[in-house]
Design brief:
Largest sheet: 2 strands, antiparallel
Distance between the termini: 65 Å
Oligomer: single chain
Low-confidence stretches: none
Mean pLDDT: 93
Helix content: 55-70%
Strand order of the largest sheet: 1-2
Radius of gyration: 23 Å
Order of helices and strands: HHEEHHHHHHH
Length: about 260
């Protein structure tokens, strides 16, 4: 999560934004590659294996964030034991997943940027009009096309990739980008999203992860330590354990009085 990555992400955003903004037809040109004019459908969308691939992608994302939740649970149950992974990593993984695919993609943009999906526009057999990526005034009312939701989750894997050891980080970044591009490509081929929906999903997920990583790890005004994050969990776990112990003693006292 360095400035080189930021510069690359901003350059991609500027290039894609300008080119597809000036020539919005390019989005249609990409999607038409996967459209069958004879059946007037995106055949990839009807393939059963594409649904399986979406399930596998969701499972992989869950697997990557699971250690963060396990670490929190372990700290609450055994407050004096070290966490499975560091407190900052726990906060970083959960926060980026919640704010990126959760809030930014699905709550803010997809429900308010009213762009129709390829399968819904007249050029591909639908009934609604096509709008370029920069225009939020389309006819879609909810769960719209911009930005791509599932590719946002796939590109979120850039966050755990950033936590890999330095010698592995280039490889993990490459794997995360390939994963996001694969899921995004499948959604384009199925008529679920335009190219720009996927491209900006990748850009936005990286930018959000870059900002959150800076707030937690790099920038002095907000930079945290693992201990600062683990201390409240340790206190909460200890308090819960003491409360349960007190409750158990009270129950035992009532039983002894009755006997």
């Amino acid at each position: 999560m360095n400035r080189t990555g930021l510069a690359i992400a901003l350059a991609i955003a500027a290039l894609v934004g300008v080119v597809f903004g000036v020539y919005p037809q390019l989005d249609l040109d990409v999607s038409v590659l996967f459209f069958d004019p004879n059946t007037r459908t995106f055949k990839m969308g009807a393939q059963l294996w594409t649904q399986y691939s979406r399930d596998v992608a969701s499972a992989l994302i869950t697997l990557l964030v699971a250690p963060a939740f396990v670490a929190i649970a372990g700290k609450l149950i055994l407050p004096r034991r070290r966490m499975l992974i560091g407190g900052r990593a726990v906060l970083f993984l959960i926060l980026t997943l919640a704010l990126g695919p959760g809030v930014l993609a699905n709550e803010i943009l997809k429900d308010h940027w009213a762009r129709m999906r390829p399968v819904d526009v007249t050029q591909f057999g639908g009934t609604d009009r096509f709008t370029p990526w920069w225009d939020p005034r389309g006819p879609c009312s909810e769960n719209c096309s911009f930005i791509a939701g599932e590719p946002s989750g796939a590109f979120w894997t850039l966050a755990p990739a950033a936590l890999a050891p330095p010698q592995w980080r280039l490889l993990t970044y490459g794997a995360a980008l390939a994963f996001g591009a694969l899921i995004g490509g499948l959604r384009i081929a199925a008529g679920g999203h335009f190219f720009t929906d996927v491209a900006f999903a990748g850009v936005f997920m990286f930018l959000l992860a870059w900002i959150v990583h800076g707030l937690i790890y790099r920038w002095p005004p907000t930079r945290l330590t693992d201990k600062a994050i683990e201390r409240p969990l340790e206190w909460a776990g200890g308090a819960a354990r003491d409360a349960l112990a007190a409750l158990a003693r009270r129950i035992a006292g009532h039983k002894s009085q009755r006997s």
